[in-house]
UniProtKB/TrEMBL annotation:
<keyword id="KW-0732">Signal</keyword>
<feature type="domain" description="Capsule synthesis protein CapA">
    <location>
        <begin position="63"/>
        <end position="308"/>
    </location>
</feature>
<feature type="region of interest" description="Disordered">
    <location>
        <begin position="26"/>
        <end position="61"/>
    </location>
</feature>
<feature type="signal peptide">
    <location>
        <begin position="1"/>
        <end position="25"/>
    </location>
</feature>
<protein>
    <recommendedName>
        <fullName>Capsule synthesis protein CapA domain-containing protein</fullName>
    </recommendedName>
</protein>
<comment type="similarity">
    <text>Belongs to the CapA family.</text>
</comment>
<dbReference type="Pfam" id="PF09587">
    <property type="entry name" value="PGA_cap"/>
</dbReference>
<dbReference type="InterPro" id="IPR019079">
    <property type="entry name" value="Capsule_synth_CapA"/>
</dbReference>
<dbReference type="InterPro" id="IPR029052">
    <property type="entry name" value="Metallo-depent_PP-like"/>
</dbReference>
<feature type="compositionally biased region" description="Pro residues">
    <location>
        <begin position="27"/>
        <end position="60"/>
    </location>
</feature>
<dbReference type="InterPro" id="IPR052169">
    <property type="entry name" value="CW_Biosynth-Accessory"/>
</dbReference>
Amino acid sequence: MAAMGQWGWVRRGCAALMLLTACSAGPGPPPEEPEAAPTPSPAAAPTPPPGATPSSPPAGPITLTVVGDLMLGRRVAAVHDDPTDTLRHLRPLLRRSDITVGNLESTLSTAGPPTQDDYFSAPPSVLRGLAGAGFDVLSLGNNHVGDHGPDALVETLRAFEGSGIRPVGAGRDLRTALRPAVVERGGVRVGFLAFNAIGETPRAAPGTPGALSVRMPPRTGPLHHGDLGRVLRAVRRLDRRVDVVVVLPHWGEQYTHTPWPVQSLVGRGLVDAGADLVVGGHPHWVQGVERHRGMRIYHSLGNAVFDMDFMEQTLEGVVLTATIRDARVRRVDLTPYRMDATFTPRPLRGAEGRAVLADMGVVR
């Protein structure tokens, strides 16, 4: 779509977002969804007894690492006995971080026929390797977790039980798809929400499995203020109970370094609602970073592991490592890499690394 068309979406969406985030008079917002309890960290601190003096906020620092799209099926699985071996060169970085997060771009079950021509699945055993690589949270808020239908989606969710990894962004129904994942490290509570704006995976609804979804350009129509409002309210609720809120949108256009303007609109709305960090995925190329009210919005980190070897940019990406201190993201470091012929990412240095960062507008 031409640039004028993209900004047309933004003009219409901006009016909707103003109604959601700025209006205080007139009819109130739609009733909030029944609140699902967050998925807790096993290390969560106990609630102080009544009358106890609240302790000071934790100082930290802790580190949070985020990677892009992980697709561990198809040709990745064909060339590796354990598809998570592709992470061997990144594993020291991932395991060194206090919290590690990624987007699992597939289902973990084939309990139904494929629902689209381009479908991805991986064996549930990959969760063991991902946990061993240091992952604590995986987003399922994407357009491929539903690739084998609702039964396979539910089986995928069940596979996470006992894995040590918390899923976020999809559920057996809308209530559970809205449930945040909360991880506590060093006394710092970090909460995660994820959503899908690309379609294909069914939208979670009462009694219906699916992904938490926001309809928006370029794939699922004009910005839907009801969908976005639901996510913004979830961000506000989460912000009241954790120190740092991270939102993981699956959005945008494939095979371009340029985000759609509506991504900025939605990303800024998420920050206004309480997000401290927004990290997007889906474009399969790295995209730029922007700041809003001091918070960072990363539109795409590129592919982490994927069998897309038909162009150079789909083999490139970055690992994001954020340092959190005093309940704020104080610093972000980016580690660029390129996948080799076996879809194994290898960190880049020098001019090659700087070239990947330059595609994000980052100059070193």
